[in-house]
Design brief:
The complex is a heterodimer of chains A (219) and B (756). Chain A has 219 residues and is mainly alpha-helical. Chain A is built from nine helices and no strands. With 756 residues, chain B is mostly beta strands. Classes of the chains: A mainly alpha (219), B mainly beta (756). The interface between A and B is large, with 46 and 48 residues.
Chain lengths: 219, 756
């Protein structure tokens, strides 16, 4: 009887520890995820990417930490580019490589989904922007294919509209860009964002701030 | 019992809560600093306690600080891009910890020094490339020819009277071209007197170009001066069809990509007819048959694994022409030249990752080339005549060549970037010549050669800052019945963030040219020894390169004229070349403008062929310089490209043969005026950026020698050396107009590139 008691109590305590661990994970993630909308600098994105990667490495089974680590990496690279057109491949390519590694870890832990393809699109765009003249055909095409895939997997994903809008926004008009078309897409992203229900408090729901910011630039 | 346990679990929750509270209260501060091998702080390093959430990112001073509730023995890891991940074991108790972490450089391609002495690379993947693939086609003086743009790089000569790359005092035959590793035997269209021919291959089928002006890798051989190494494109992005209409012909093609994107195949046909262009632009030659070219090519590419691919590319082409020029040998008569060419080339290539760091590359190529040449003396009515004493002017020559090349390379990658490559190459050539003299006498000649080579080289990265490439090549020639062993060594040292210095040394062997029938004495390999020192500084926007070189030639072929034909007499020739070269490319200083300047100084002398003694050869200019400027105006959807090429005057001379003494001498000498050429081209792309457009159009205009400079490449003499005449381009200026349409695929990039 005593033995059973101990065994049972051990079981209960393990179970409890499991819940505690899960709570700790959710809490840590919520804290970091909440910082995403405010991140504006290379340093901040780098710190976030490192933090998410740490959580991912500790958890091992969760795809979201690696997903966010990849997102933060690609955002870091985008911030490094700072709106320049080309000439920084030596700086951003290593970040794109790192983002790709992180995303591969995330992909391995989840089923194919729209959010993963959004990051794939962002990485391809980062690579393309680093040297548009030579990379347009390879990475430009890879980016638009990834975006199509993301849309196809979830037509309601507001981030796909945000990314498409950014493409339209940054591409010179002679190359098919359009601020008016971009505006419609940002509007759509905001609308979709308002009705978007993330799976949980730590599932991807970012982009409202960016969409509003770009929308304001289109006025 | 159940109740008891519930109680117990409650109690445990309480206990756990207490414990957790205790933990919170006993957070330990961990701080420290991360430095690299040079004791400099490293910024952005991720510090973490393994398998926990706790950690931090270092600031710009390399400092980090965080708190943790973990206790006991733990491993702290420090990771950062470009460094090896470092682990430190710590024991966490209640006292704050301070640790210093040393990060070691990870040897990687991005940071490591590049072995670059003597090499120009056009590629979009690797760093340290001087050109991008686009430059090959958007250089105004390049005429969309593969080697055109390379002529604006230091080391190459501005030779306009014959095709090929003349590098650092070497002849065009001292430069060999390789496609996907295997030798290409007839890279250029067959020679025509005093008119440089284009390369047979479209620049658009290549994604990478390596132009070595000396000291090249042991994987390549049989070139005394230079190797041009071309890598063909892989599977295309999309299915497409294209159509081109230009002042010189029409072209069309179709490229199909399979649904799973794992294989592709395509066909192209090109018809070139120079009649409209020659009607518009007067040519120096009087054409009886204006050049007409037919060429067709086919390809397929199959992905065999993630990194494995099989590629086939084959061409079939024919062309013919006939023209007259006033004869120097006898006034009022004309020299006639007619050429019919048939050429087919096939290349099969297989690249595979074998796992465990092993890679394999195998290539096979086959070429059949047939030239029918007719030479004759013609009267003013264009009737062939035979003049006493000038009978040698009337002859026919049929040249048939069959060439087979095979190459197999294995590569094993060790830790870091250390690599060993080794393999074997086999070159088979069968050249048949049938010379028919004016009287119908036929002189057949057939030369077969089999060259077998073995080679090995290794890239050794001692650190990120110091690397060496050491290799050797062994060759056996069945024809010469000789073997050679050629060592090649280069070293590169990184002097700063973007700067590096390299040196290279190597021995290079080449068989005597097959155009000279063998004399009684047996021939040996000609030999060149290269010494190169280079400094380069490369950022993504600016490239600076300076190179000095010394090249020593030994055992060059000497010839003697017998009945107006040169016959090899031995390997008594020699020579040397020394000089320095500068290259500056800048995409930053003038916004939106990309320009480069190159300058070469060359001091060379050689005694070869029928030279009486060592002299600066007629294909070598002392000073060569180029300025290339490119600007794309997005608003007008138009690219503007300009080029200025300069070369100081080149020597010319007449070598007379004294048959009695068996000696030669210079009976006349001189120097051409300086060479100047300004070319300009523009590309207009009206559909640029229109997403989902069904058709893309590119309109091209290009003009060479815009300012109508007098250009004299050299002088040609009458057979007795008594009369001479300047060798000039067929027309002072050339104008090219074309429209290129492609369907079904966004060829924006191609469009930006096309600049014929």
């Amino acid at each position: 009887m005593k033995k059973i008691c101990i065994l049972f109590s051990l079981f209960v305590s393990f179970h409890f520890a499991g819940i505690a661990q899960n709570e700790k994970y959710i809490k840590a993630m919520e804290d970091k995820v909440s910082q995403i909308e405010q991140a504006r600098t290379v340093e901040k994105w780098q710190e976030l990417s490192n933090s998410f990667e740490r959580i991912g490495e500790a958890e091992k089974e969760q795809w979201l930490p690696f997903y966010y680590a990849a997102l933060s990496r690609v955002m870091m690279g985008t911030m490094m580019a700072n709106g320049q057109q080309g000439g920084f491949a030596d700086k951003t390519d290593p970040e794109a490589d790192k983002a790709e590694q992180l995303l591969a870890k995330a992909s391995a832990l989840t089923t194919e989904n729209s959010e993963i393809w959004c990051i794939k699109k962002m990485i391809a765009t980062l690579r393309m922007m680093a040297d548009p003249m030579t990379r347009y055909q390879t990475y430009g095409m890879a980016a638009s294919e990834a975006l199509q895939k993301a849309k196809q997997l979830d037509p309601q994903n507001p981030r796909t509209y945000l990314l498409e809008g950014q493409d339209k926004f940054y591409t010179p008009e002679q190359f098919g860009g359009s601020k008016t078309e971009a505006k419609i897409l940002f509007e759509e992203s905001i609308k979709k964002q308002e009705s978007f229900k993330p799976v949980s408090s730590i599932h991807p729901s970012w982009g409202m701030g960016q969409a509003k910011y770009f929308y304001s630039l289109c006025k | 019992m159940f109740f008891k346990n519930r109680k117990m679990s409650k109690w445990m929750i309480f206990l756990a809560g207490l414990l957790m509270a205790g933990k919170v209260n006993s957070q330990v501060k961990i701080s420290g600093r991360v430095v690299d091998g040079k004791k400099k702080p490293v910024y952005g390093v991720s510090i973490s306690i393994k398998d926990s959430y706790d950690g931090a990112t270092t600031d710009s001073a390399g400092n980090f600080r965080f708190t943790t509730s973990e206790k006991g023995i733990h491993i702290i890891t420090a990771t950062s891009i470009g460094y090896r991940t470092t682990e430190v074991e710590v024991s966490i108790a209640s006292d704050p910890l301070e640790i210093e972490i040393l990060l070691k450089d990870e040897i990687n391609e991005l940071k490591a020094v590049v072995i670059s002495a003597g090499t120009f690379e056009a590629s979009d993947r690797k760093k340290g490339t001087v050109l991008t693939p686009i430059d090959i086609v958007t250089t105004a003086s390049g005429n969309a020819d593969v080697v055109g743009a390379l002529k604006s790089l230091p080391g190459a000569q501005q030779v306009g009277e014959s095709e090929g790359l003349f590098v650092r005092g070497g002849t065009a035959t001292e430069t060999k071209t390789f496609i996907d590793g295997t030798l290409v035997n007839n890279f250029f269209y067959s020679s025509v007197p005093n008119i440089a021919q284009r390369g047979r291959f479209s620049p658009f089928i290549f994604k990478g170009t390596v132009f070595s002006t000396g000291g090249y890798s042991a994987l390549y051989g049989q070139a005394l001066s230079s190797a041009l190494i071309l890598e063909s494109i892989d599977i295309p992005e999309q299915t497409s069809a294209n159509l081109g209409v230009t002042i010189i012909g029409i072209s069309g093609g179709y490229q199909h990509l399979s649904k799973d994107k794992r294989s592709s195949g395509g066909l192209n046909y090109n018809y070139t007819d120079l009649r409209p262009a020659f009607a518009l632009i007067k040519q120096k030659q009087e054409y009886e048959l204006v050049p007409i070219f037919h060429s067709a090519d086919a390809n397929f590419r199959i992905r065999t694994s993630k990194n494995g691919i099989i590629k086939y590319y084959g061409t079939f082409s024919t062309n013919q022409l006939k023209f007259y020029t006033p004869s120097l040998d006898t006034l009022t008569y004309k020299d006639g030249f007619a050429l019919k060419n048939l050429n087919t080339y096939h290349n099969l290539f297989w690249r595979e990752n074998l796992g465990k760091g092993w890679k394999m590359q195998a290539g096979l190529s086959y070429t059949y080339n047939r030239d029918d040449i007719e030479s004759g003396l013609y009267n003013s009515g264009n009737e062939e005549v035979l003049l006493h004493g000038l009978e040698f002017k009337n002859f026919q020559q049929l040249q048939k060549g069959q060439y087979f090349n095979g190459k197999l390379v294995f590569e094993k990658r060790f830790s870091g970037l250390n690599v060993v490559r080794f393999g074997s190459e086999y070159n088979y050539t069968d050249d048949q010549t049938e010379y028919t003299a004016f009287n119908g006498n036929v002189f057949p000649l057939e030369i077969k050669e089999k060259i077998t080579s073995l080679f090995a080289e290794t890239d050794i990265y001692i650190t990120n800052d110091l690397a060496a490439k050491v290799g050797g090549r062994f060759e056996h020639s069945a024809l010469l019945n000789k073997t050679n062993l050629a060592p090649r060594i280069s070293l590169a040292y990184k002097t700063g963030k973007n700067g590096q210095a390299s040196i290279a040394y190597g021995i290079f062997y080449q068989n005597p040219e097959r155009i000279f029938p063998p004399a009684n004495t047996s021939l040996i390999f000609s030999k060149a020894t290269h010494y190169i020192a280079q400094y380069q500084k490369v950022t993504s926007q600016i490239t600076l390169r300076a190179e000095v070189f010394y090249k020593k030639y030994q055992a060059l072929v000497k010839t003697i004229a017998v009945n107006a034909q040169q016959i090899a007499t031995g390997n008594g020739g020699y020579g040397d070349a020394k000089g320095f070269e500068l290259f500056w490319r800048d995409r930053k200083t003038i916004k939106g403008v990309d320009y480069w300047i190159s300058y070469s100084y060359l001091d060379t002398k050689r005694d070869f062929l029928n030279f009486p003694y060592a002299i600066q050869p007629s294909f070598a200019a002392k000073h060569t310089a180029s300025l290339i400027v490119k600007k794309f105006v997005t608003k007008w959807k138009t690219g503007f490209n300009g080029a200025y090429n300069y070369a100081s005057g080149r020597p010319y001379y007449f070598i007379a043969t004294d048959y009695q003494l068996g000696k030669t001498e210079f009976t006349d000498m001189g120097k051409t005026p300086d060479y100047n050429n300004v070319s300009f081209s523009l590309n207009f792309l009206p559909n640029l950026g229109k997403k989902n457009a069904k058709m893309f159009a590119v309109y091209v205009i290009s003009i060479s020698n815009v300012f109508n400079f007098d250009q004299i490449y050299g002088y040609q003499y009458s057979y007795n050396g008594l009369r001479k005449e300047a060798i000039v381009p067929p027309s002072k200026m050339f104008l090219f107009i074309g429209a290129f349409l492609s369907f079904g695929v966004d060829r924006t990039e191609d469009a930006i590139n096309i600049n014929l």
